[in-house]
Amino acid sequence: MKKYIYIAIVILFSGCDEFLEEDTRGILSPDGFYATEAQANAGVFGLYDILKDNNLYGRNLFTYTAWGTDDMTCSRRNGQANPLLDASISTSNLGQTAGTWNTLNSLVVNANSVFSGVSNAGIEPEIKDRIIAEAIFLRSIGYYHLTHMFGSVVYHTEDLPIEELAELGETSAEEIVADLVNDLAATEDNLPASYPSSEAIRATRWAAKTLRMKLLLWQNNWAEAEAVGKDIINNSGLTLEPNFANIWDNNVDGFTSETIWQMIFSINLDTSPLTDFYVPRLRDEPASQADRQTLENALDANGEGFTGFGLLIPSAPFIASLADDDTRTPMNFTQEYEGIGLKFPYTPKFQNFDQELSPRGNHGDNSIVFRLADVYLMLAEALNEQNKGDEALTYVNVIRARAYEPDRPDLAGLDQAAIKQVIMDERRWELAGEGHRRYDLIRWGTYIETVRNYDYGSLFDPSGIQDHQVLFPLSPNQVELTPGLVQTPGY
């Protein structure tokens, strides 16, 4: 099945005019292919393969939501980081956003094919409803990122021939998000509460509800977001890990008690390069070359290595914001290894130095997409926006109780503006680098101001950022070849 899915991708995004003259609806044979549950599941697993592509959760959806925010900077000039950290992204300097745009649209097209094929398949109704709900969730993930990155985009929920897709006009982000919210609300409870470990990458109802909650915050639909957040916290069976470090301690092998959804990779089989972005480059370290042999000896003794790229590093203002009594700080920032000082700061929660289990270019480290702490803080935000400040603080205080050692007093008696600032800060420290910060800043209306006044170090200058750069441009080639596409305003 997988090869037929990728045929559809190539045809859609090849840019060859002759392909636009063909009706490709029969490539996946939706009316006949999904004769069994196994075949329908194979179609869905093809969608997860797209999600794990380097343009999406294999790399870019983390790097492009970290660089160009108030979390991360880059250790050196780099073609992927420069456009974001210099605020220089343009139609002639796209970075890797064109690849992400293509792959997100591939996800949507193929999710529609699975949706159509399963809808017409002769399989049990309960199974059909579940897989349809899964296809809708995965299509919604595609549009969640498309609307946040590009604004208005071509929107379609049917398995259409290529020439019809090419002629579709754009739909506003607001309309798309409203549809996504309705689709998820109508189908999310058809998803199971959990899957066996062999299918652990698959989205549960709690993943779908978390996505809907994020979209509801985008809409300022605070009351419904509150209801969804309480449903997840009270009914999912998920619990916060007692120790923040535990979330990242065994990320290669499985889930933690607060993991809602994650991408699963496998060494020697199905790998991601993301870990290399956080692991240091040995030639950059240590801070003092007099310690070089000591560092190499320590790494060898532990079976570890500095074999990464060392590109994604915490920025100086972010480091300065971290508190010594915050147990998240050692996972968000370190500048030493076994007591040896390092030249650059790093983010330990995303690192894996193990040369047997996670060697350079062959990482099986899983990537968390949604976890329960995020839901607690989103719920606090939804409550605070409804002037339920005291209740909002009860959820913030749960996160703070885990974070601070010794315990800090519970927050109380703050006004709405002060609570909002607390939530914004706690999201920064709790979720640093986890793919949420750019979207949070955009949603709060603070993205441009934050980046314009931010210090990424002497290598980068974002002060020239323009208001339209809250969104990314489309490739001029894509716009030229697709009549329905309109370039992102301002570019």
Detailed description of the structure:
This protein has helices at 2-13, 37-51, 60-63, 82-85, 97-119, 125-150, 162-167, 173-187, 205-218, 222-235, 246-249, 274-278, 292-301, 316-321, 329-332, 372-385, 389-403, 416-430, 437-444, 447-452, 476-481; strands at 72-74, 153-154, 170-171, 259-263, 312-314, 334-337, 340-346, 367-371. It is mainly alpha-helical and 491 residues long. The chain has a domain at 274-365. The strands form 4 sheets. The chain has a two-stranded antiparallel ribbon with strand order 1-5. A two-stranded antiparallel ribbon has the order 2-3. β6 and β7 (340-346) form a beta hairpin. α2 runs antiparallel to α5 and α8 packs antiparallel against α9 (205-218). It is globular, with a radius of gyration of 23 Å.
